[in-house]
Inverse folding.
C-alpha cells in the first residue's frame, strides 16, 4: 500500500526555505569558529580521546583537500539544498554539451558576497548538475586556509570543494579518463568587495593564472556567468581610496580573506539582517573554448587565450542579459 503525504503549506515551505539559507549563511560566518572551539574543548572533557584520535586522522588525511577531496553523495543530495534553491530561486542553464571524456576548467563570475550560485550549483545536486552534465564530476576551489579547520574541512570536502592551490588543480585536471570539472571563482575574495546590486564589474583583466593552467593541461575553458549573484546583499559604500577599502585590503593581505560589510534582510523582518534577499540567480554555463596544450606557454600565448576567454564571456553575457532584466546599455567591465 502506497502512503501519500499531503503537500506542505506555502507558509511552511517558505519557513523551511528561509531556515535552509540561514544555516548556509551561518556555516560560512560562524561554523568554522564553532568547529575550532569544539575541537579544543574536547581536550578538556572526558571525550579528550575523541579529539586525540581526530587529530591523528587529520594529520594522516591532511593532503586530501589537494587530492580531489572526499565528496559524500548523501550530503550533496540533501533536501536542505533543495529548499535553499527554491528560496531565491537558483537555476542552472546549459548552453552546450560537455564531453565526459574530457576534463574542463570553468571560470565562475561574479563572486558575489558569498558565492551562493557557485556553491549550490557545483557542491550540491539541488539544481541538477549531474542530470544536465552526465558523466561530469564537479569540483569547486576554495581558499586553502578553510581546510585547516578541524571538522569544518570534512564538511567542505563532502560537497566537492577542494583547496585553491596549483597542486590541487593539477590533480583534478590531469586525470586521463576525463569527466572532471574544476570551477574557479576567478575574481576571488577581492572581487567580493565590489559585489552590490546592479554591479557588472569583474576582477579579471590581469587574472591569467587559470588560463596558464588550462594551457599547461590542454584543458578547455568554459566561461560561466551567474546573473543575480550580486543582487543578494547590499554593501556599505567602500569606493577605491576610501579608508574602509584600504582597511579591507590590508585585512585581506593579512588574513587571506576579504571582509565585505554586507547586509540584507532579517529572519522575521525585511528591513535589516544578514539573510540574503529572495532574488533569483540564474547561472549560465557557456560553450567550451578549445585550448592547445603547451607545457611552458609564453606570455603572448597566455594573453591570446585570455583575450579569447574575455570575448567569449562578454558574448555569453550579451546573449543572455535581456532574459534576466539587465538593461541594454549595461556591459561587463573588467578591472
Amino acid at each position: 500500500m502506497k502512503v501519500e503525504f499531503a503537500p506542505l503549506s506555502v507558509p511552511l515551505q517558505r519557513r523551511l526555505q528561509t531556515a535552509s539559507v540561514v544555516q548556509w549563511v551561518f556555516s560560512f560566518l560562524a561554523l568554522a569558529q564553532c568547529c575550532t572551539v569544539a575541537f579544543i574543548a574536547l581536550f578538556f572533557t572526558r571525550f579528550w580521546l575523541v579529539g586525540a584520535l581526530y587529530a591523528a586522522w587529520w594529520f594522516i588525511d591532511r593532503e586530501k583537500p589537494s587530492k580531489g577531496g572526499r565528496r559524500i553523495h548523501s550530503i550533496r543530495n540533501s533536501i536542505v539544498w533543495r529548499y535553499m534553491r527554491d528560496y531565491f530561486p537558483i537555476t542552472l542553464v546549459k548552453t552546450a554539451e560537455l564531453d565526459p571524456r574530457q576534463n574542463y576548467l570553468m571560470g565562475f563570475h561574479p563572486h558575489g558576497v558569498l558565492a551562493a550560485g557557485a556553491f549550490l550549483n557545483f557542491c550540491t545536486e539541488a539544481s541538477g548538475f549531474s542530470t544536465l552534465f552526465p558523466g561530469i564530476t564537479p569540483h569547486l576551489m576554495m581558499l586553502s586556509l578553510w581546510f585547516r579547520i578541524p571538522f569544518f574541512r570534512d564538511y567542505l570536502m563532502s560537497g566537492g570543494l577542494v583547496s585553491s592551490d596549483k597542486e590541487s588543480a593539477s590533480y583534478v585536471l590531469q586525470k586521463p579518463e576525463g569527466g572532471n570539472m574544476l570551477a574557479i571563482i576567478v575574481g576571488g575574495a577581492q572581487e567580493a568587495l565590489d559585489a552590490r546590486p546592479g554591479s557588472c564589474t569583474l576582477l579579471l583583466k590581469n587574472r591569467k593564472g587559470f588560463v596558464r593552467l588550462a594551457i599547461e593541461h590542454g584543458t578547455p575553458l568554459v566561461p560561466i556567468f551567474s546573473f543575480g549573484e550580486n543582487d543578494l546583499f547590499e554593501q556599505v559604500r567602500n569606493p577605491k581610496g576610501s579608508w574602509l577599502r584600504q582597511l579591507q585590503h590590508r585585512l585581506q593581505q593579512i588574513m587571506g580573506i576579504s571582509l565585505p560589510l554586507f547586509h540584507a534582510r532579517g529572519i522575521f523582518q525585511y528591513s535589516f539582517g544578514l539573510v540574503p534577499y529572495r532574488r533569483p540567480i540564474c547561472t549560465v554555463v557557456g560553450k567550451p573554448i578549445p585550448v592547445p596544450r603547451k607545457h611552458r606557454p609564453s606570455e603572448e600565448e597566455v594573453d591570446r587565450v585570455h583575450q579569447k576567454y574575455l570575448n567569449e564571456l562578454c558574448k555569453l553575457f550579451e546573449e543572455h542579459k535581456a532574459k534576466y532584466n539587465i538593461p541594454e546599455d549595461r556591459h561587463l567591465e573588467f578591472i
User: Anything to note?
Assistant: The mean pLDDT is 93. The CA atoms of residues 45 and 166 lie 40 Å apart.
